């Protein structure tokens, strides 16, 4: 699978609701359904759940009247989420897809490869948890959909629609089907990525991230399995389940319990709640190095061990850093930076980008835009 630059996608306007109802298999009938009872609760727990997957719970009975349709959507959905979440989305019935295979299982989602019965198109259906009795679960699900709706970039996985079941509380996010993901590509036993491929994936990741950050969205879970790759080698950032809005001019506290441990920035491990784009750039730096080495570079088993590994690589933090993050005595030892030695065999341009992205100080990591610019400068020098 080669790595290529993506072309811009075009968006189409939603067709009329009445036509949709008949086109997508919505017919009247009696209610009998079930609902997943155990949702995500607070973000901290979301991550804990995320790191120790549990099977999806059994479904619950649907209440009478909730199987009616409102503008093409089941009443149980309309009654439970803000209307603007659904604006611009085409209501489809889950019955209009044939599931072919389960391709991914997270803690609060199952992802299926499926075929659209009408068009024959192969899609990915991400079944998300939804429990009307648990407002937090509804909030998280609505946030993921709203964030996906705000994004439109060739390197960001586009939400193509929502499919629901009238008889069950089942909600599926519909995406184009992607052949692979970056973890699978990196860990291929026989094929180590070569420099031009790594640069190409990095360029796409940074372009997608730049778009998210420009739109005021932090991804908060950048890692290989959330970066999907299509059959042409186009990389798209997916899984916005932990993403959130941010405004650097109007900061509000955000939970630090985000990002999978091996890709988590030091400021998050130290409890920061006023972080910004730099947390996604740290994860990007970890991935850049991972692409060269063929495996994750810092595999801590606990948050403390992860911090030790970070300081071993980057060296002791400055006195100011100590004060700002109230570092405990556990870390009062001199760490000699090993970053230059660790990456000495990498191409020079990548060495310097990794050093910037893996800076202990968040403000030294720059932005996705500055990383893209430095990449362009390097290519110009090489020409
Ligand atoms: P979770 O929140 O459970 O991690 P993801 O959105 O990351 O959900 O999806 C879980 C897995 O399903 C991904 O790591 C990937 O392997 C697979 N997957 C997700 N979206 C697609 C897609 N559009 N095409 C193919 N596979 C996908
Ligand atoms: Mg995921």
From TrEMBL:
Question: Which PROSITE patterns does the record cross-reference, listed alphabetically?
Answer: PROTEIN_KINASE_ATP, PROTEIN_KINASE_DOM, PROTEIN_KINASE_ST
- GO molecular function: any one? ATP binding
Q: One biological-process term from Gene Ontology?
A: positive regulation of transcription elongation by RNA polymerase II
Q: Which SMART domains match?
A: S_TKc (SM00220)
- Record's keyword annotation contains Kinase: yes
Q: Where is this region: Disordered?
A: 1-41
Keyword vocabulary terms for this entry: ATP-binding, Kinase, Nucleotide-binding, Serine/threonine-protein kinase, Transferase
User: Which amino acids does the record list as binding ATP?
Assistant: 126
Q: Name one GO cellular component term.
A: cyclin-dependent protein kinase holoenzyme complex
Q: Which SUPFAM superfamilies does this chain map to?
A: Protein kinase-like (PK-like) (SSF56112)
Q: What is its EC number?
A: 2.7.11.23
Which ranges carry the Protein kinase domain?
A: 97-380
Catalytic reactions of this protein? [DNA-directed RNA polymerase] + ATP = phospho-[DNA-directed RNA polymerase] + ADP + H(+)
Q: Which domain of life is it from?
A: Eukaryota
Q: Which PANTHER family match?
A: CELL DIVISION PROTEIN KINASE, OS02G0304500 PROTEIN
What is stated as this protein's family in its record?
Belongs to the protein kinase superfamily. CMGC Ser/Thr protein kinase family. CDC2/CDKX subfamily.
What is this protein's record name?
[RNA-polymerase]-subunit kinase
Q: What is the lineage of its organism?
A: Eukaryota, Viridiplantae, Streptophyta, Embryophyta, Tracheophyta
